[in-house]
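Need fresh eyes. Consider my entry:
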Amino acid sequence: MTAQYGVSTNTSQRVVMGPGKVYIGATKTWPLGATMGGNILEINRVFRDIRPDGALGKVKGFRFLESGEYTLTVKLLEFHEWWTYYMLAGSSLATHVVSGGEIDDSAYLSEVTFDMEIKGITPATEATLVSVVLSNCLVEGPFTINAPESGEVVFEFKFTAHYAASAMTTEPFAITFTAAT
């Protein structure tokens, strides 16, 4: 029996390599900076599984999106007071001091974009850039500063996208494939 690998003649042209680049804001004017240890995007969707009497398993048409969690974990090598202000939702920044506060609508980041480049020689009809946009983001979970005895300090945080109250059935993410120009 011949082994099956799933490799095609275009496989090498569709490999995503590198850590990607993370931006805050809809205009991509605020790049976060150098990362170390990679970025991790997670889109976790939970489906309701309705099984009518007599069904022996999952039934097509009886599956509905019940909930979703959309996160981007970033391990940042650079550190800046302005980014810290955004990483700690509801905080304030005054005279180079970041302090805590209440989370309100202004604490949410409209968009966080994660760009990844597809390497290889791709035809003009193929995408060379993949952009994932998370909407209405807060940094949730631990904001971690890993300061080892020797070596670089790495700051880790997790952006979490939120549904908009005005569009509660629209998932807060978009994945765009941009073709070569």
Strands lie at 21-24, 30-31, 35-49, 63-76, 92-94, 97-99, 109-117, 127-146, 154-160, 173-179. The chain has one helix and ten strands.
